[in-house]
Specification:
Blueprint (H helix, E strand, L loop, with lengths): L1 H17 L25 H15 L4 E11 L2 E10 L2 E12 L2 E4 L2 H5 L10 H8 L4
Antiparallel strand pairs: 1-2, 2-3, 3-4
C-alpha cells in the first residue's frame, strides 16, 4: 500500500514539473484548458506571447499592445489582439496551430486555401478565418 502511495506521489510530482493536464474527450478546449494539440498550452500568457512574437517578426514598426479574446479548438487557436501601428491601435485577428509545445502563426490564406470539407482546420476556426460555411 505504501509503494502505491509513493508511486502516486511521484507521478503527481512529475506532472507538476512537466505541466501535465487532465485530457478528457469533450467538445474542445477552452481558454482555461491547459493543453491543446499535444503539449501546447492554451492560456492567456502563452497565446499572448505567441501573438506578440508574430507581431514582432511579421509587422515591422507595429507594437503588440494587449491580447483580447482567444479560443482554442483541437490544436488550433484564434486570438484578437490590439496592435499599435503609426500611432493607431487596431484590433487584429491571429490564427495559430499547435506544433508540439509551440503555437505557430498561420495565415488566413493557408487556412482558407483548402475547402472546409478537406481541411484539417477545426470548423469554428475555419469559419472565423474564412467567414464562410460550406
Amino acid at each position: 500500500m505504501r509503494s502505491l502511495a509513493l508511486t502516486a506521489a511521484a507521478i503527481a510530482a512529475g506532472c507538476l514539473l512537466s505541466a501535465c493536464s487532465n485530457s478528457s474527450p469533450g467538445p474542445g478546449p477552452s481558454p482555461t484548458d491547459s493543453a491543446v494539440g499535444g503539449m501546447a498550452t492554451c492560456d492567456a500568457p502563452t497565446i499572448s506571447a505567441a501573438v506578440e512574437s508574430d507581431v514582432n517578426a511579421t509587422y515591422p514598426g507595429a507594437t503588440f499592445v494587449s491580447l483580447g479574446d482567444f479560443a482554442c479548438v483541437d490544436g488550433w487557436a484564434s486570438a484578437t489582439a490590439q496592435v499599435e501601428t503609426s500611432g493607431t491601435t487596431v484590433p487584429t485577428e491571429f490564427f495559430l496551430r499547435a506544433e508540439g509545445q509551440f503555437w505557430v502563426p498561420t495565415s488566413i490564406e493557408d487556412i482558407c486555401g483548402t475547402p472546409l470539407a478537406e481541411s484539417d482546420v477545426p470548423e469554428p476556426i475555419y469559419i472565423e478565418a474564412c467567414g464562410v460555411q460550406e
